[in-house]
Amino acid sequence: MKTATKQSKTEKILWAIFGLMKLIDDIYHFAPGARRVYSLSNVEYREIMRKIQWRKSRNRFAKFINDLKRRGYLKTRIEKDKRAVILTPKGVEKALKITLERSDKKKRKDGKWQMIIWDVPENYKKTRNRFRDALKLLGYQQLQESVWICPYSVLKETECLIRFYGVESYVRLFLISEVEM
Q1: Domain check: are 56 and 145 in the same one?
Q2: Domain at 73, CATH number
Q3: Which of 20, 30, 130, 153 has the most CB atoms around its CB within 10 Å?
Q4: What is the pLDDT of residues 129-151, one digit of tens each?
């Protein structure tokens, strides 16, 4: 798991923008491919710069925002005399992964395990692979081909992932009392 000091500049910026988004809209309401528009004032831009301890010029920050746009994480445009920042689906996914990496995973007090059985069709291979990678970030371990288990209390996060990737009809969740590996 990455610590805050080992994060790349990209992750710090996306995390700061995502933090502002969370004030406006709860992450669990994102739909697959969602695009949300958030207007940032100059004060909010300075706050982001302060949070990431970026003491260089505004030009350097603007260049970095342009780099994030070039890499497909966000888009910007002017709306009502304010700069609007749009996290693209790729940016939302990256921010979600950062959220999962930072989440505090605690073992269940009752000793039970969260189990997920899923069978996402081959024609959704990219979605299936991204979903699998996100499950790993939550602490899931593969028990069989499409059977994964996790000793942590991550039900809400798992449900969020299922909705985010739009795989509700291909997934079943269970709570099991013991696992023999």
Answers
A1: no
A2: 1.10.10.10
A3: 30
A4: 999 999 998 899 999 888 999 99
